[in-house]
Amino acid sequence: MTQRVAILISGGGSNMVSLVEDMQGDHPARPVLVVSNVADAGGLEKARSRGIATACVDHTAFGANRSAFEARLSEVLEAAKPDVICLAGFMRVLSAPFVTRWQGKLLNIHPSLLPKYKGLNTHARALAAGDSEAGCSVHEVTAELDGGRVLGQARVPILPDDTPEKLAQRVLAQEHVLYPKILRRVAIGDRSRLDLP
Ligand code: GRF
Asked: Ligand 1, closest atom to CA 110?
């Protein structure tokens, strides 16, 4: 049974593209919807040009009413009947009721070696700490920000002349490798941990 995958984005959608481009041939899953909370997110056009249904649930239209935003987001998702929902550069914190509603289906990719550096500005923090390596993590989404079970990680060395921008680029390249690998495993029910060399 082909798994139905919805992908949530907020920006350029490079992780979404990597996931979509991997979901071909004998892959056990297919993309069914790309949703952005940002109306002019570049990723929406990338999805459309690949023939994938898109939707926008603009969080600014709901003001401070997070539950109303999430209720609309759930409505849009329910119509797509997703088996897996991949957060891919999605920049909204999701509340406990939303996570409970979609329990077990939500994955996220975070640009740090969790549990280090939950939240934002991960690369600057790793550089400021003098770390020798950085990386990215795919994890199950829970109500705790970037706190769910880690399903896989990829590591990159931190180089002497690194800036947050240079490091971000190097980590992003590994995100594009790791996330599709983890999604393939999750799509066949394998949630064992996969750490890339
Ligand atoms: C990047 O900073 C990436 O590290 C994180 O989300 C941001 C945008 O990613 N996962 P994308 O290009 O929109 O997938």
From this structure: 10
